Amino acid sequence: xxxxxGKGEAEETRKVAEADRDxxxxxxxxxxxxxxxxxxxxRLSTVLAGMIAGGSIDDxxxxxxxxxxxxxxxxxxxxNKHANSIPSAALISSSISFNTAPFKEPEEWERKFVDRLxxxxxxDLVEAANFLGMERLLDVTCHKISEMMKGKSPDQIRExxxxxxxxxKEELEEIRQELAWAFYDD
Amino acid sequence: xxTTLVVIPDDALADALRRLPARGLAGARCVCKAWHxxxxxxxxxxxxxxxxxxxxxxxxYIDHRRPHLFARPSSAASPKIDAMLSFLPKxxxxxxxxxxxxxxxxxxxxxxKWHSRLCVGNPATRRWTLLPExxxxxxxxxxxxxxxxxxTSPHYEVILIPAVPKKPRRPLSWKVKKKxxxxxxxQHEIDGPFCLQLxxxxxxxxxxxxxxxQDHGEEEFQPATESAGPVQPCVDEDEDKEPDxxxxxxxxxxxxxxxxxxxxxxxxxxxxxxxxxxDPVGTVEDVRSDLSKQWLGTRHRSSTVYQxxxxxxxxxxxxxxxxxxxxxxxxxxxxxxxxGNEKPYLxxxxxxxxxxxxxxxxxxxxxxxxxxxxxxxVLRYQNDLSSYARYASSLYNNAETPSEExxxxxxxxxxxxxxxxxxxxxxxxxxILGFHAYKKIVFLADPFGVxxxxxxxxxxxxxxxxxxxxYYHNYSNGIYESFVYTPxxxxxxxxxxxxxxxx
Lengths: 186, 503
Hints:
The complex is a heterodimer. By secondary structure, chain A is mainly α. Chain A has a single domain (5-165), classed as Potassium Channel Kv1.1, Chain A, CATH 3.30.710. In chain A, α2 (38-44) packs across α3 (46-54) and α7 (119-132) packs antiparallel against α8. Chain A is built from 10 helices and 3 strands. Chain A has helices spanning 8-17, 38-44, 46-54, 69-84, 89-92, 108-115, 119-132, 135-149, 154-161, 169-178; strands spanning 23-27, 33-37, 62-63. In chain A, strands 2-1-3 form a 3-stranded mixed sheet. By secondary structure, chain B is an alpha+beta fold. Chain B has 2 domains: 10-48, no CATH class; 50-164 and 254-495, Neuraminidase, CATH 2.120.10. Chain B is built from 11 helices and 26 strands. In chain B, a hairpin with a 3-residue loop joins β22 and β23 (449-454). The N and C termini of chain B lie far apart (50 Å). The model of chain B is unreliable at 173-240, 400-427 and 499-503 (pLDDT under 50). Classes of the chains: A mainly alpha, B alpha+beta. At the A-B interface, α7, α8, α9 and α10 of A face α1, α2 and α3 of B.
């Protein structure tokens, strides 16, 4: 990374003041920097919360090597929007347990937020949210993904998700038979 | 075309899949092997497949040829239920009499073809299995009961519970010949190590002479009707007298108690011995005399609960058999009170085994508390419900009869009645139809108007008329057994019937 030599002193001061700053800087795998509300980052991401509490936040941009700039931009965008929206009590206490938690419906702005994304961007965002431990964002993106699956045949789903059918005809028939009731027409 | 495969972390994909309805999940399993793995390994379908709601009550009516489902409106609910049970194997004989013998977590066992055959079926998946034929008649049994725990396995077992040996009827002269032929060897065997199965098979033959007799089906429904009278000495021959003397003094239930069990794993019947832990009820004679004091319907109605590898069976009488399948032992548990004219029901209330009485407007419900070494009944609920009964009865009398297909209730709205204590007693409920499996609700009938009564809130809701249109009017009209139905999409059943047309 490059830092202007002339700014070295200013940088020192900035570091000292770090504790008082209300934003953190995140750096994507391709080196782009993003600022995000510290409060929102800590609240929405267990990973970032851990880094902030542990003091491992780098002023010059905390390296997030697994996350591309487009996805990180969306993460930061989401966090900042979240910081501006009124956090409902339900949201703060929300925690995902993959088997039992009841689903929390996305709020209107969250719905719009994921709706505008391309499929690829959405899948990247899911990955980023997963990596950063952002349960609420995962909830919202998974909701969107399930919407994309609803009412579609296996063939249509494969097309949307770019999945190769790795079954033989016989295997497929067997799997259908296991739950034959699900394939009856009403 | 070269495609870049989308990579979604498994946890996230599972979370997305989990939001799909059952059909969506079934479809997702067909997308690719990885998705199939996620759906199955994480048990995503289980919440949809396991029983989680009450969809209705299967009812056997007195002197009626078939059972009916008294149910919620079918349009609103999922999965779709074949309420008329038209998926079951077709019988050419249109006059076939059949009934529901038991229900357990979404599976039903039916006595079909005049109760000569047992068939296990699932109205939600429309699958069924005809159990292999047995050599001895089913009529010697008080009940065929299902043991099924879909959360742990799709396999089920059916167990036959023997009826208290009946006093042999005085054989007609033309039947005696037949009996003589088979009696001697059997008596020798009775002298040997005790074999319940043999005792029953010989009894059955003496009771139900042959195929020519008209009412085999009836016989099974009314196992105890003939035991009511005083013991008649059999004067014909010594041989006729001896079997009953043997039974009369025998302790009941016997130990070891040999029961026939069908397992869907093996596809076969197998005799299993259960050793009694504790005292018997008494002698056969004691049990017979106890039964003879009971209301006729009580003697017909057998109810069971199966959970945690333990089967609780009440087949009339003032006792319950608690069969433990894990150690092949059984215990006799006395009912909370001696049963006389009360109408008892053994069922499951939320997670507890419970026993309810209905007598002269009084509802009483006990919960079975089990700890090491000690099993006891705790009175859970007691109230006078005669005012509700009157109200339900007035609604019933004013309502039109539903069509055969629409024995439906509507408990999704809040049409709950709260009735104050008026004085005049008139009508009263006749039966407890069952307990709601997931709420503190008991279903009562008066005899055909059905009411759901919430025990904690002391509120009742009239659900509707459970009398089928095709049930002819007769003084004997009424309800035999009733089973609170909780649909389940699991069950290792062989035959698949997708033909939805009614027979």
